[in-house]
């Protein structure tokens, strides 16, 4: 039943199809351009150990950003999964998401050229968090303002989905980066608690207001 | 009814589908390549303020060009929305649009390396305006010469759409850049008046010759 | 009738669809990367005339290559228009076409960094001609060996299409470059005559063995 | 019959369609970016021989990597050919495949900047082999864990397909590179024997457990 609904969802609007092609293109280019900043280190002695010594920071930043863009792509897929029509508001908000994605290679290069004690972690984290917020607003606009998500769910379900889209990327990425960077314990714990609360709320909403609950 | 028409519009011609994939690819690459010119400033001290001081011009040019390419993509989407077939003329004119888009990253780098009193603003503006003209000609060719826009509208409607496609990008971008650059007031006012006249004409044509008016 | 056939042609094989997405992606990236070699000239004085003086060679090479890739894309579209299935042979030959396209930005940079009396024109021309040959072989393989072009045409029609695909890009591009470069008259005339013979043969074949002639 | 099955396979899930667009985008960009490292040699005298002398290593590495990415794309196409749904596990494993593809241009530049006696061959080979393993795991997950391959085949058939996907890229690429690099004979022979055993097992499985055998 659900599968059948998906099938129908995307087929009414060539404008939405093109928006998704365009967005997938931007994601694919940004994720591949991450590797364009990887250069053979000057005076490389040819050994694997030498490469790792000189480039582990670059390769680490590449790996983190690759995962981040991958996760954001998946969030983007979910966000547009049940959208039925192109609307200008969604287009404009989605443009902010794409701007965040297009800036990821730049933010990644900040990350590994970060001087000691610099703000690069914070800038990188802010970019991921803001991209998440833009994604959340795109979903929120589609669900509440333009009302183009079908089948339409209970407002509480839509609100929890909006909250997940908005806050997850920043929280997850923050947790990872802070854990890697040995941040003060209370910040890491604070983030983990927020994340747990967010997921609990989503699960609660799904139980209480989800299709199964409503049907029952 | 309208939605149904859209659905049919795109499905007759694989050639047109490929033209749209190809065009979306060029748009997506150009918009993402904008960020490739963003570099970590030499001797960056690691602070956010330091980054902004050194790079605000680059980031500003990035933001403007991102918005411009986004808007031109949306105009491109509208231009091809009701086209029913691939024709060679549309392909050739569309190639000029794509050339304009592909040159945007270069024009953006001119914009922020602009020496004092240089022509970079004018060159950038001309590129946007010419891309708009190429887009307008593409639509005009499709609507008047090849006659592949369906449902076919009154000639006055097609003419006003052609005028909008042709002049809007240049006028809007010019207005923004001039306002940012504190241009002489009379130029800004002149552009705003032209824009108002253009939109009024479009609204008038839609009322007088649009589908509703004809049906009445 | 013909339109209906097109519609059917592409819908049987997701493998062929993906091959076309992949190819369109390579074409779109190569055509956009042409502009990545355009740089603001060192010590630019900010004027349009200064930019043209310093960069007209680069901009000219960009324009020629943009047109060449556009034309080759259109030939690629025609080549695959009536293909019905993915076959490994077509995939491998198409890979050679894509390699030629991916090398175009490199060949373009050879073109404008060409020292006096160098071979850059010849290298560029050979690349375009070889890409055309690869395209022709792709079509020839599909039409004669794999036999996946539908509706199947008379062998003479297929042969003339194969010849056009193979020789046109090299002949046209050669004619343009040689005319621009003030080549010896007899070479230009030779190329023009070959081109005329080729087109005449195609028109003759279409009249004698085309669908209309066969039906009559 | 088989063709009809393909047709159905891909049409249930827009999520899977977007995953394939996204992946094709990454493949297309990586294969085109290979050529971005090709530069006009310093002090080029303009002759073809001069270009070849200075750049044959770069052009050779470009050709090998182009073929490798092409072959991996084809393996990716086969891997997803009969998949019916998007699943998160497939998405995550596919992300590792894409990371391997995105790193190919970097590995290629290692290959031709390889100092004498360096590990670049081994690093390059490991990357190709690991990408193959990731591809194999993607297929294995889809076939055995998520069970989204239709029509479902005998476990032995799925296992042999998984083994082919996993080991082929590394074996083939290793064989080529070692043959080119004049490796000790016993290594080349060892690889060739492994390859032969792998293919024999696949052929045996197809005969014994394939659709024809089961139907008989």
TrEMBL record, chains A, B, C, D:
Q: Which InterPro entries match?
A: TMEM175-like
- Cellular compartments annotated: Membrane
Say if the entry is tagged with keyword Membrane. yes
Cellular component terms (Gene Ontology): membrane
Pfam short name (any one): TMEM175
Keywords of the record, alphabetical order, are: Ion channel, Ion transport, Membrane, Potassium, Potassium channel, Potassium transport, Transmembrane, Transmembrane helix, Transport
- List all membrane-crossing ranges: 19-36, 56-74, 86-108, 120-149, 161-180, 186-205
Q: Per UniProt, what is one GO molecular function of this protein? A: proton channel activity
Q: What is its main location?
A: membrane
Q: How does it sit in the membrane?
A: Multi-pass membrane protein
Reaction catalysed by this enzyme: K(+)(in) = K(+)(out)
Q: Which domain of life is it from?
A: Bacteria
- Please give the family membership noted in the entry: Belongs to the TMEM175 family.
Protein's UniProt name: DUF1211 domain-containing protein
Taxonomic source organism: Brevundimonas goettingensis
Q: What is the lineage of its organism?
A: Bacteria, Pseudomonadati, Pseudomonadota, Alphaproteobacteria, Caulobacterales
């Amino acid at each position: 039943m659900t599968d059948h609904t998906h099938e129908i969802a995307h087929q009414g609007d060539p404008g939405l199809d093109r928006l998704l092609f365009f967005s997938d293109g931007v994601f694919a280019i940004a994720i591949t351009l991450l590797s364009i900043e990887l250069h053979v280190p000057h005076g490389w002695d040819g050994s694997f150990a030498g490469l790792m010594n000189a480039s582990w920071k670059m390769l680490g930043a590449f790996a983190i950003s690759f995962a981040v863009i991958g996760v954001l792509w998946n969030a983007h897929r979910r966000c547009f999964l049940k959208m039925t029509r192109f609307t200008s508001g969604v287009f404009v908000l989605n443009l902010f998401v794409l701007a965040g994605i297009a800036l990821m290679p730049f933010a990644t290069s900040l990350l590994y050229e970060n001087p000691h004690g610099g703000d690069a972690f914070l800038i990188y984290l802010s970019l991921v968090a803001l991209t998440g917020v833009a994604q959340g607003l795109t979903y929120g606009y589609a669900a509440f303002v333009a009302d183009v998500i079908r089948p339409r769910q209970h407002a509480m379900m839509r609100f929890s989905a909006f909250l997940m889209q908005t806050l997850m990327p920043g929280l997850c990425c923050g947790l990872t980066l802070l854990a890697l960077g040995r941040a003060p314990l209370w910040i890491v714990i604070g983030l983990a608690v927020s994340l747990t609360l967010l997921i609990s709320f989503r699960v609660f909403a799904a139980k209480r207001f989800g299709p199964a609950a409503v049907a029952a």
